[in-house]
Write a sequence for this structure.
């Protein structure tokens, strides 16, 4: 299951405090005015008195200021102090943020068990981000024993509040489950909830579900719609699949120009299958002007990443280039490699120069 902990601090407490604080009225009114004027430093100074008096909201705001450096010097130890004081009074966002600091070891000694404790306290009060993080910790057995069923319940609680990653993980839970728990209808439901919240992987998964007919009738137009949503957000596998759908006329009218456009986007993000496909389009002159130099360069780029199809095609295309074309193709291939493979995290370790061998 793909799980990613949320480690971004919640910083919405400024406005929350301004709208809800009812003590130290003069100071808080002045703090409100300073904040609205964009003078966070003055606002923090004025909130200080309320925090020292024990107002949890003010303590939370000072924690945010110290954690982010907005209105105060960034100091995670100070942030942990203020979040801790507010958290002890039951302020849920302070509890969540304190959990994040313990999870990351910023301002406190790294301690997943403490993180789990604070996430649980915040989750019990309805803090959705904490519900999701608690589910991940339970799912992965971080900070305590793993508990898949309790993790599922917290994923569902967060998902029902619109948390996209929680809905995605819940969908994965049902999709990958063994015979006792696998429920493809439930998986699709939660993937759709996640996709509606903008979760790219859920959008891609729905495209695959409808393309392959996993638990549903094959619906290629719907598959195209979901692939497009993910591709528009930059998902490389979705871009490649969308290119394939346009190339083959699956769920959409065949359009080599559109196929080339989507293949190129995926190819430029380092996808070797897309690089191979784009190379073939240049060779055939489909959707792009025929260009053997471009064809060779993209095929060599794919072959440098161990794409066997590209390696075999490269030998064929290479035999059709004259000396000048071959030199130009090698130069272009190296430039593409630097731009679209070597510069990417986890890029290929072998530069173009000869076809990869099976």
């Amino acid at each position: 299951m793909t799980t990613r902990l949320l480690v971004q601090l919640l910083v919405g407490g400024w406005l929350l405090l301004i709208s809800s604080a009812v003590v130290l009225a003069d100071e808080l009114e002045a703090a409100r005015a300073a904040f609205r004027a964009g003078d966070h430093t003055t606002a923090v100074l004025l909130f200080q008195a309320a925090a020292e008096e024990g107002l949890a909201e003010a303590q939370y705001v000072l924690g945010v200021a110290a954690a982010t450096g907005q209105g105060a010097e960034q100091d995670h130890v100070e942030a942990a102090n203020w979040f801790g004081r507010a958290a002890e009074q039951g302020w849920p966002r302070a509890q969540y943020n304190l959990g994040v600091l313990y999870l990351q070891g910023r301002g406190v000694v790294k301690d997943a068990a403490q993180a789990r404790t604070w996430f649980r306290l915040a989750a019990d009060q309805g803090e959705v981000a904490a519900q999701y993080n608690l589910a991940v910790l339970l799912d992965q057995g971080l900070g305590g024993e793993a508990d898949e069923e309790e993790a599922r319940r917290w994923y569902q609680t967060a998902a029902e509040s619109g948390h996209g990653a929680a809905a995605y993980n819940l969908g994965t839970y049902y999709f990958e489950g063994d015979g006792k728990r696998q429920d493809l209808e439930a998986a699709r439901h939660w993937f759709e909830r996640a996709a509606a919240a903008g979760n790219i992987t859920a959008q891609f998964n729905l495209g695959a579900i409808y393309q392959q007919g996993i638990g549903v009738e094959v619906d290629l137009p719907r598959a195209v719609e979901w692939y497009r949503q993910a591709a528009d957000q930059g998902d490389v596998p979705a871009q490649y699949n969308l290119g394939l759908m346009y190339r083959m006329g699956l769920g959409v009218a065949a359009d080599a120009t559109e196929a080339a456009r989507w293949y190129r986007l995926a190819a430029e993000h380092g996808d070797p299958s897309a690089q191979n496909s784009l190379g073939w389009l240049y060779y055939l002159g489909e959707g792009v002007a025929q260009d053997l130099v471009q064809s060779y360069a993209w095929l060599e780029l794919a072959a440098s990443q161990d794409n066997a199809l590209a390696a075999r095609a490269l030998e064929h295309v290479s035999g059709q280039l004259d000396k000048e074309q071959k030199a130009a193709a090698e130069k272009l291939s190296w430039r593409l490699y630097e731009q679209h493979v070597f510069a990417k995290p986890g890029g290929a370790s072998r530069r173009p120069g000869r076809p990869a061998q099976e």
User: Anything to note?
Assistant: The chain has 19 helices and no strands. The CA atoms of residues 10 and 97 lie 7 Å apart.
